[in-house]
Amino acid sequence: MTLAIIGGTGLTSLNGLEIERREMVHTPYGEPSGPITHGVLDGKPIMFLARHGSGHTIPPHRINYRANIWSLKHLKANCVLAVAAVGGIAEGMAPGRLAFPNQIIDYTGGRDHTFFGENLAQVVHIDFTQPYDRALRSLLIESARAAGIEAVDRGTYGATQGPRLETAAEIRRMARDGCAMVGMTGMPEAALARELELPYATCAVVVNWGAGLHGQSEVAMTQIESMLRTGMGQVRRLLTELIPKL
Ligand code: HPA
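Above: the input record for the complex with hypoxanthine. Below: its predicted structure, written as tokens.
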């Protein structure tokens, strides 16, 4: 079982990863965000890809999601853990928390969002009722418990286009829609993984309250940066529990 980790903002490398090699994959869809790192983490082989590029230079709407997912499939990853910073919307989604979403609402637009758009022998509609892999989500929930990390075990991830943050009214609308958290990279990544039959789950790291919530007059980048550091430390501890279970 080879896990591929897609690291988001705040996770461009993995502490303790013994790097074996870096591999650039050329895909029919163009270049992924960077080379895939092959290495050993806590005794198991894993792959790692920095979603925004190793220097964090690719904004959410410019990420080549198809090339990223295709590369991981091509290199024979068996499952994908997406790590992603989010804003909290629901009560309980306070900055510093980890969360494992179980649903998605897609508010993005204009992204290359499917492998089944051209050169088709026939039209393909994947089932996406449950967008995240149930077994991988269960392992994440168990691992957080074992690591003593307080994590929210479900919730709807609202994927926005970015790169700007939301208005207060957009966040209120997302709350009415039932979104528990908001991020910019969850889609089309999750759907593309499903199209290639790659089990996929997300570990969301809450780094701020959604715009306008809890009396905030603006979203402070300084808070985001400090919460990223706390949150990614917890992700690392979570991985130590998760990896032996795979
Ligand atoms: N909105 C969208 N994406 C995000 C946020 C947010 O508030 N925080 C981290 N990623």
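Notes for the reader.
The helical segments are 65-74, 134-147, 168-177, 186-195, 221-245.
The chain has one domain: 3-245.
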